[in-house]
Amino acid sequence: MNSSPQVVDFAVGLIPLLAAIMLVLQLLLLAQRMLVTVIRVFALQSLLLAVIAGVVGYTCHAWHVTLVAVLTVMGKVLFLPWLLERLIRRVRIEQEISPWLNMPASLFLCGGLTLLGYLVARPFASAERVGGNTLAVAVALVLTGFFLLINRRKALTQVLALLTMENGVMLAAIAFSSHGMPLVVELGIFFDVVIAVMVLGLLVFRIRETFASMDTSRLNELKG
Amino acid sequence: MDYPAILLIVAACAYVAGMAGALLLRRVGRLALSVGFGLAAVGGACGFLSGVTSLATGQAAARGAVTFWSGPAPNLRLVIQADPLSCFFVTIVSMLGAAIAIYSLGYSGAYLGRKSVGLLAALYNALLLATTLTFVAGNVWVFLIAWEMMALLAYGLVTFEHEDRETRGAAVFYFIMSHIDAVCVMLGFLVLFQAAGDFSFDGLRGVGAKLSSGQRDTAFLLFVVGFGIKAGLVPLHVWLPVAHPVAPSNVSALMSGVLIKTGIYGIARVCFEFLGGPPLWWGALLLALGTVSAVLGVLYALMEHDLKRLLAYHSIENIGIIVMGLGASLMFVSTGHPVLAALALAAALYHTINHASFKGLLFLGAGSVLHATHTRNMEEMGGLVKRMPQTAMLFLLGAVAISALPPLNGFVSEWLTYQALLQGFGSTDSLLRLMFPVGGAMLALTGALAAACFVKAFGISFLAQPRSQAAERAREVPASMRLGMALLAIACLFLGLFPTVFLGWLGPVMNQLTGEALAGRLSLAGGWVLAAPGANAGSVSTAAMTLFGLSFLLVPLFLRRMLGRRAKTVRGPTWDCGLQGLTPRMEYSATGFSKPLRMIFKALFRPHREVQREYEFSPYFARSLRFESHVEEVFEERIYRPTRFWILRVSRRVRALQQGSLQVYLLYIFLTLLGLLLWAV
Q: What is the pTM for the complete model shown?
């Protein structure tokens, strides 16, 4: 980092804080049942990620990390939430989500997953460029995101879970090196995510047309 | 100029042309048949000439490998090489291929208008090409490609008459076994590659010295299983009596005569050239497997009354005899007796070509019978010797050869095997030397049982009165079919009467594999007497035996001419015990003929017999009678069926994993991820 020391100190303090808030938002996602709220919480989380990327890009003078920040704002904070909210209005899904595991148990389990994240990230603590524990938070985000993916039945929430996992991956990439991943890889991931959302959005329509529901657990009727 | 090599290329071109021609002309069945099989015969003849001249002039030994395509990666090359071992096997496949192609000109006519004869001829050419390529492969790539092509094309030919449910099942069984054998062979080559770092056969030569003994044993066992399945060694033989009979007879002849020999080629190539310096137990294992295959093969053959299945079981027997020779040879290599090793190897290779010629002849004979009577069941034949005399004589010649009776070729190679086995007892102090006399005794038993089996096969099928309408209406087969059989019969006679000539050609092969050519040590009296090397070894002359036998035949004729001028010849009816004439129902049946042996080997066969009788007043006036008799196929029942059962059962359990629920699949991934993370921490 080649900015002035005060700026660096500020960034080093700010980034873990923002990352911690991302994790808190993730737990909120886990507990939230209203679809519209879930989407907005996700948008907020993505915004935090964009801020982190922006801070890193500014302090390290890494222009392409800044570009990642801009893309995140455009894609995950504005475009995808707008797309998903429009989808909700169009398919008129009931707002309730019924998870497999109830809320307290889920939160308890996610606490364990977060611990595991810290455990896994510990050996790499010295390699981190931006503040302590950011990598741990990133791993915890991926793991809880995965749990969210399993725990929810609605295709739409599963899409969101996948997106939060992707946020975790991005955070890990930013935390691990001041240069982030090569730009090509990051653009590839963005493109993938957008395509995945489109496909899943289409799938939501199809499932609803076929089963008159958005519940992916009904798909086991297709088994041979 | 290496003319034999050019001939070999001509042969390959003829096969390709035959394949293309038959496919292009497939709409005109008769033409496709002539072009396809005609070119196959030409190719076979060229290949045969190429192989024999390569061996006879010793050109094969001087040849190097030829790279005809070099890929981007360093080891990715296609190499062919025609060394003496390759040339020997090319000779076999070409000889048989040509004879069968001529036979097929007549035989396949029966399919005209019913099936695509063009396809049959094209597949046949392709199979000959693939088999030839397997033998002349110079590196692992070419070998495996040709090996798999061969399996695939053979599958196509086995399933040619796919309207029949039995055929489809047999073909699929064959296909699965081929897969297992290919996997084993590939793994074996990978083990060798790890040490050699080279896929070419030149690079693999003597690679065994670089391997640890554990790796070497693993490779050896993998190759034995892989090549053993292809060869039909007990207990890996079960596919053979299922798949060979259902194929068209000309294909059966090729499969039994040549395709199973690719396994022998593989064992010889890998064990002698690549693995080198074998421990004693390798040879002992092969000797034991060979002995068991020989005895069990002939015993099961005795119980068959399906003519083609009977011949298929005899293939297992003969493969056993060949592998006995190979095993004995490996044992001699490891105990340091190169002369004996060469002798045993010569016996094995001699029997390989012998089996190709007489088994080819017998399968073609069975095909002729099938062609004439449309049945494979011997109990519905009979009396064919009057209706198709030439086929009968050719079949009889093959039967005498396979029963190892002098002066035909089966006798010579089995005699050589005996010589090797009998001298083996003194070759080592290890307890394993007991296997030699036991193997010899078992070989004697095999020979006797084979003779009994062919008395049954010939007697029930060809002699006495016809047992069915079909047999009564049988006619002699077309001339091309008889010609194909006659060519193989000539090969049997030549190999039987002039063994020293042929063993001279075999010299380079033995030299290549054991370093000992036995040049001049096998023949006495200018080549008329065959002698085994060694202090107490025997010698034999089939030519003299023939002369002697013929003279015995001539003397009575001469005496009758001289003394019996006034004798009168009267032909009377056969004595019928005072009944109203003899009917086919009174004939000895195949089942009846083999009954004594079934009882002797009861422990193995576990014969099952069931008689159901329905009657009103007395059991002597039955209204209906049902008789059922069969023997248990031990390997099928005791090994393969339980294995299949367990595989299916485990698969059904594993299938519980397939829930059809997205969440559950995600959970699997998640748990795996967590497990890996925890393991890493």
A: 0.78
